[in-house]
Amino acid sequence: MSEIQVWPEGVEVPFEPEVNLLEMLVDADIPIAHLCGGRARCSTCRVFVEDGLSKLSERTVEEVAMATKLDLPDEVRLACQTTLLGSVSLRRLVLDKTDEMLASQLGRPALVGPVGREAHVAVLFADVVGYTKMSDALPPYDIVHLLNRFFSRTRDVIETNSGVIDNYMGDAVLALFGLHGEPEPALSAVRSGLGVLEVAGELTRYIERIYGMSFGVRVGVDFGEVIFGLIGAGEAARETVIGDTVNVASRLESANKETGSAMLVSDAIYERTHHEVTFGRRHELDLRGKVGRVVAHEVIAVANPSDPRPGA
Questions:
Q1: Which among 229, 312, 216 is positioned nearest to 256, based on CA atoms?
Q2: Domain spanning 3-103 has what CATH number?
Q3: Homologous superfamily assigned to 118-302
Q4: Whole-number Å distance between alpha carbons of 42 and 66
Q5: Is-contact 82 62, C-beta < 8 A?
């Protein structure tokens, strides 16, 4: 008897030839997402075919349109548009509400960039640890999906703390705090950095369950003057931030590898937050592009409003 092996559940589902794959999985109580009700409009029923791709029906006109729009590889299919001719092994790609939000094509608002100007801001730079190893081990679809899952949760953390995303650079994200005069930008950046580390911890549990791998992030934060403006030429031009503060935040992120920490901040951040933040080791670092040694502080935690101030 032909069967469908479904992961990550690790279960086998019997099937009848020429029967819709989504219907079979739903009837078998497999929690497969299908926000649009099986009309090839949301793409949340997407699955990755691990084995048996030749045993699937050809893509329908509707599925071809969605696959073309999203540039889906041949192995990623919409269950609502697929029937089977034999046994296959497949993996659900949309596992929870966050995945649904990232995958659904049912409409998303456009993001509007901030106005360019000179400002004093806190700059946060966060980068994924071990991205090269992860990209070598996983299919391209999974890499893009995991990064977008991380960036989505990171954006929530940053915006909750009154920050704005300035740029995504491969597996890294750059965020600004205080661009519009929001209060306590340095503390907001530190809170966001710790939140990003929490997101990485949550994502590690997700990735370990699915792929047996870990997921780490390093964070660097600085405070100072930046120039914010339209950079580039033609249609590729975009508003972004430049300046030494950006460079220092990036260098501090990289220095975590040397110091064995997860989050380092500059003296400027320390001076503005030491009453509310618990710091660990103090480091004097040689940062590329900087004359002299730069003092950096390891961040441990932010005190709750009801807690006594550290050192009080």
A1: 216
A2: 3.10.20.30
A3: Nucleotide cyclase, GGDEF domain (3.30.70.1230)
A4: 9
A5: no
Question: What digits encode the pLDDT tens for the residues 129-186?
Answer: 988 888 888 888 899 999 999 999 999 999 999 999 999 998 999 999 998 889 999 9
pTM to 2 decimal places: 0.79
CA–CA separation, 52 and 298 (whole Å)? 50
